Amino acid sequence: MNNKTVTLNFSDGRPSIELPVLDSTMGNPVIDIRALASQGIYTLDAGFTATASCESGISFIDGDQGLLSHRGYSIEDLAYKADFLEVCYLLIYGELPTLEQKSVFVDSIRHHSMLHDQINNVFRGFRRDAHPMALMIGVTGAMAAFYPEAQDVFDPKIRDLAAHRLLAKVPTVTAWAHKYNKGEPFVYPQHSMGYAENFLHMMHATPCEKYEVNPVLARALDRIFILHADHEQNASTSTVRLAGSTGATPFACIAAGMASLWGPLHGGANEAVLKMLEEIGDVSNIPEIIKRAKDKTNPFRLMGFGHRIYKNFDPRAKVIRETAHEVLNELDMNDDPLFRVAMELERIALEDEYFIEKKLYPNVDFYSGIVFRALGIPPSMFTPMFALARTAGWVAQWAEMLSEPTIKIGRPRQRYIGPQLREFVPIDKRGS
Ligand code: CMC
Prior knowledge:
Helix 7 packs across helix 8 (215-227). By secondary structure, this protein is mostly helical. The chain contains 17 helices and 6 strands. Strands 1-2-3 form a 3-stranded antiparallel β-sheet, with no helix packed on it. Strands 4-5-6 form a 3-stranded antiparallel β-sheet. Bound molecules: carboxymethyl coenzyme *A.
């Protein structure tokens, strides 16, 4: 039993407060400040840089060691030895499935992959050129109307069903957002296909000709889904938890997570990498771009390099780099000019003193856009791809929170810095 404490001493003569320090199973201990509120003391930590918003047993990151694990399994082990649906099961239920558990789970996800027929009309309410994230947020939120029983979020069976529905239907919503943008007919999910295989089929098949999914590409995409499945309490996951803490329907909570992911500081970086590579255009322009990235007077940054938490390397980047090579080999695209620019940029940056000294390594987004492009997925769909995969983490974190007996609505405090109470002045008495 840990009895560590920390004492807060105040310079204004109030009595000091002793707070417990809680150990974590991995990572830093946390000071339990819950008793502070009853003493009329709040803490200020905009951006939550030092504040744990919850206790969670799902994923863990050690940025200095370049470690990401889910339920204790390293991301490398999961990426190479499991498939995405096994990882979903692990995230939600805490253990890897047995053969039998996996078969029941996969069957359930397949069974729920079709969208209600009325959902077609929801798509049709959008402009053809709507950003696919707008479509995804709208359609996922609208699903709440089709499954009203999901509102009963304190029933574990109902939560389970909603989690399965979301995992099953979000790929269909994602692919249909793309089809809607293209003006092509929606392609229905195929129960006989694997998760990533079915997704590629819904993205690229048309009613006019048979579309065979390349198994190497399906496996590569499945691995990318694993790499993006969960990542501790990031902005979108925290958004899902905050919305979920009110008891809102899971379809609204996941739509809220998607909205949070949409921002360029979160899910939008992979699109920015591709834009940057296209702008560079040729390896001969790389020295100039590196010079710009190092110039203190220029706000330009090398997109796809650096990470807030991983200061050694991003373990997901190592795996996805290998996957990018596999995909480009399979498609005979090694001489693709954009890929050559990417590989040369990576080589030069990794040898450059500035990037070494600041610990700026390629992150997962540096490679994911390259793979998505090779898979025929347009840049506007990169964030939706991320949302599809992260739905696994979102539903697991949402379900974990709701299963806690002590769940509390998320309600942060603030440090008020506005005017003090003052007299109301009638409009005809206010100065100009
Ligand atoms: N290119 C050039 N210089 C950089 C870069 C970069 N990509 N990233 C950081 N730096 C410099 C920065 O100028 C600063 O220099 P100085 O100390 O001289 O002021 C130093 O490195 C530290 O930067 P920071 O902004 O304090 O670092 P941060 O941890 O707050 O930012 C980051 C992390 C990811 C926002 C940043 O590295 C960045 O903007 N990278 C490019 C965008 C990108 O690839 N984003 C995707 C991140 S992965 C997404 C995910 O995991 O979901």
